[in-house]
Specification:
By secondary structure, this protein is an all-alpha fold. It has one domain: IL-4 antagonist (De novo design) like domain (Four Helix Bundle (Hemerythrin (Met), subunit A), Up-down Bundle). Helices cover 89% and strands 0% of the residues. The radius of gyration is 19 Å and the shape is elongated. 33% of the residues are buried.
Length: 134
């Protein structure tokens, strides 16, 4: 009976460790995709493509929200990144509110701010990997 209880506890803790590892991988994948979309968003803004700015900004929001949901709540790097992710979401919502019918120069300012916030968030999120390696 004690062996069965030990095996159950071992299996549950092993699953928890695997679930956390999957979360870190998921966060890193979303962070990389978010950063790519943020860079593409600003690049398209420089080319005058308002529709692409709005599209990529929407993708930044999707990735940022997914990261916020998957992030370990007690991690200090996650807490630092959360503020930047929320800032990126706020700027992208401003871009979405302006829409794709306005001059791309109007949406480029909040898009650039969203990219800066996304970059800072990714910088903090990269520390999640470093902590997991220790």
């Amino acid at each position: 009976m004690a062996l069965v209880r030990f095996m159950f506890i071992f299996a549950v803790t092993g699953l928890a460790a695997v679930a956390f590892g999957a979360s870190v991988k998921e966060i890193q994948a979303h962070a990389a995709a978010m950063l790519k979309d943020a860079e593409d968003m600003v690049a398209h803004g420089g080319m005058g493509d308002a529709k692409a700015i709005v599209h990529h900004c929407g993708e930044v929001v999707k990735h940022a929200e997914a990261i916020l949901k998957a992030m370990p709540p007690a991690d200090p790097h996650g807490k630092e990144a959360a503020g930047h992710l929320q800032e990126a979401i706020r700027h992208c919502q401003r871009v979405a509110g302006l829409g794709d019918r306005v001059d791309p120069g109007v949406t480029l300012n909040p898009a650039t701010k969203a990219r800066a916030a996304a970059r800072l968030a990714v910088k903090h999120l990269s520390s999640l990997k470093d902590e997991g390696a220790h």
